[in-house]
Design goal:
single chain; about 210 residues; alpha+beta; Aspartate Aminotransferase, domain 2; Aspartate Aminotransferase, domain 1; 3-stranded mixed sheet; about 45% helix; globular
Length: about 210
């Protein structure tokens, strides 16, 4: 993607909201795309646990920053008119950036343990396969039987909810091309809660003959 953008002189827009919630070495798009202009989008809702505070930021960088100046100017004007966060939230964000950061590594350590457990349990269930998440806190497993046992992934998650009380999101809601036949969940809860969830999911899949 970086090579293609460079070949056609197209700036890259990079969503980096989970930039520090990764399970390998963090890599910024700007560090990889040194010869390409990058417009980076980030915020405080994930890493700094400020969900609902509606505060984010954008950066512009690249070999020819003058080419981005007009866009930067318009974004700044738009932010002043309609998008500015309230003052207390902006003050809180400054304190978040200046304050201790060591909690991030502790948070990621806990999430990695829950990621590993979820990945293992999901792949042990007949009829379900799951790739290992490399960042964030979601899993996106594929379900066998979509199109036969269940009409689609929406029918699967509805059936699962009605029979077990487990709530997952149908994968096609994130795009039919790659999401159909999948479901999405999170591994944020403690392992004890995840264990109960996967036990119920395994029983459900077994009861359907998967």
């Amino acid at each position: 993607m970086v090579d293609l953008a460079g070949e056609h002189d197209i700036p890259l827009i990079s969503d980096e909201i989970y930039d520090q919630i990764v399970y390998d070495e963090p890599v910024s798009t700007a560090n990889v795309a040194k010869d390409v202009s990058v417009i980076g989008l980030n915020g405080f809702s994930k890493v700094y646990l400020m969900t609902g505070w509606r505060l984010g930021y954008v950066y512009f960088t690249g070999p020819d920053e003058e080419a981005l100046e007009e866009l930067r100017e318009h974004v700044t004007k738009e932010a002043r008119i309609r998008l500015s966060a309230n003052t207390p939230v902006q003050k809180a964000a400054v304190e978040a950036l200046r304050g201790p950061q060591n909690y991030i590594s502790r948070m990621v350590k806990k999430l990695r343990e829950r990621r590993d457990y979820s990945h293992k349990r999901l792949n042990e269930i007949d009829g379900i396969s799951c790739a290992e998440p490399k960042g964030a806190f979601y899993f996106f497993p594929k379900v066998d039987g979509i199109g036969s046992k269940w009409r689609d992934d929406m029918a699967f998650v509805r059936d699962l909810l009605e029979q077990t009380g487990i709530v997952f999101v149908h994968g096609s809601g994130f795009g039919s091309a790659y999401g159909s036949g999948h479901f999405r969940g999170v591994f944020l809860p403690p392992i004890e809660t995840l264990e109960k969830t996967f036990d119920r999911l395994a029983q459900f899949m077994a009861s359907t003959g998967q």
